[in-house]
Every structure is written in C-alpha cells, then in structure tokens.
Design goal:
Residues 129-202 form the Isoamylase 1-3-like C-terminal domain. The chain contains three helices and eight strands; from the N terminus they run H-H-H-E-E-E-E-E-E-E-E. The chain is an alpha+beta fold and 226 residues long.
Length: 226
C-alpha cells in the first residue's frame, strides 16, 4: 500500500507462516520459533548443491514487513539497517559458520550430478537417501515431514556428512549410518539450539552421537563423521 499500488504489484500466493502472530511480537516462543525457521531455511540453502543465492540482509534477519515487492521503496523498508549486525549477531554468526562448513566440504560443492555410486577408492556412495529408518525415504508418502541424506566425498579422506531435515511439529529419533575407520558422528549443526550452540566450527567441539539421534520439531541437523 505504501507505494500507491493498492496491493496490485505482487502475488497473493504467499507460501508463508507467521508462527502464530502477524508482524512484530514480544511473544518469546514465537520469536524463538521464527529464529529457528530462519536457521532451517538458510541451512537447507547452504546444504544444497549449486551456488547459494541470498538477498543482502538475510544474514541479519532483515525484513520488508510483508512487502514482497519493495524494490521501489526508497525508505526504511528497503534500506539496510546496520544496527542489525549487533541485534542479530547470532544469526550472522550462524551464516558465517555455514559458509565455513560449505568451504570445508567439497561434497557440498559438486560440479557433477550425484549418481548414488561411490567415487573410486571411497567406501560410501556420493549420496544415500533416508527417512527415520536408513535407506527408507518416504518419497510416496504425502504426509512425510522428514528427509535425511548422507553425503560421501570424492576424496577417500573427506569426512562424511549426514543431514536430517525434520519439518514435523514432533520430535523423532533417526538412525545413523555406520561409519568405518573408527570415525564417529558429531552433531555440528542443530537449528533448535540458540547461538553459539546452533553450529560449531569443528566436529571435535560437538557432541558425539552413537547409532541414532534425537531431532527436535522443525529442526535441521547436520552430523559430521570425523
């Protein structure tokens, strides 16, 4: 409305959720959930193959207050508020560590399509898909809200990554793949945690998971075998 277009300048097909309140709120539970959802979305983006594309300000939770077409707004709606670097420092740190994680793992930056076959000299396939149980992704279940996958690298010495995306409103236990050479799974990303526990810079600083792990509701988790 502020640009004089009477809401005719953007689509009304907005696949979004306000987490229980519209606009700004002081409800601590809603604020916490919105932060978790922001971490979930960015984790999915940076764990995907291809070049991540994001808008400047996403790393500090910049908002256009529901306006999905703010390009012509020369005001606070579209300006970058540098004070958010401090007020959203936890999200900024999360983004920095996601970038570092992506740089650390060539398996997140492949230049070829994934085939599901192991690279030469590697015991694990390039990718393996899972659900709550190993090797049982629920592709045909329209109600499924959990997906997991394991990434193996082209280099036999590269650490494995196991990613669990739980978009359900319930917690669940998921099975973890067996790893060789005495490696163990370490939880390096957990979007349900607050900063600085939501992401750790190295697996040796993370908790060890054996056999299975608990995933909180609406949470992305990444484990690294090291």
């Amino acid at each position: 409305m502020a640009n004089g277009e009477e809401n005719r300048d953007g689509s009304n097909d907005n696949l979004s959720w306000n987490c229980g309140a519209e606009g700004e709120t002081d409800d601590a539970g809603i604020v916490q959930l919105r932060g978790r959802q922001a971490r979930n979305l960015m984790a999915i983006l940076f764990l995907s193959q291809g070049v991540p594309m994001m808008l400047a300000g996403d790393e500090v939770l910049r908002s256009q207050h529901g306006n999905n077409n703010g390009y012509c707004q020369d005001n606070a709606l579209s300006w970058f508020d540098w004070r958010r670097v401090e007020s959203a420092s936890g999200m900024l740190r999360f983004m920095r560590e996601l970038i570092a994680l992506r740089k650390r793992h060539a398996s997140l930056r492949r230049r070829r399509f994934l085939t599901g076959r192991p690279a030469q000299g590697h015991a694990h396939p390039g990718i393996a898909w899972h659900g709550e149980r190993l090797h049982e992704p629920e592709w045909q279940n329209p109600r499924a809200r959990l997906l997991a996958f394991t990434l193996g690298g082209d280099d036999p010495g590269e650490a494995l990554l196991h990613v669990v995306l739980n978009m359900d409103d319930s917690a669940c236990h998921v099975a973890l793949p067996t790893v060789l050479d005495g490696r163990r799974w370490h939880r390096i990303v957990d979007a349900a945690q607050s900063s600085p526990h939501d992401i750790v810079p190295a697996p040796r600083e993370a908790a060890t998971e054996l056999g299975h792990c608990l995933i909180q509701p609406r949470t992305d988790v990444v484990l690294e075998a090291d």
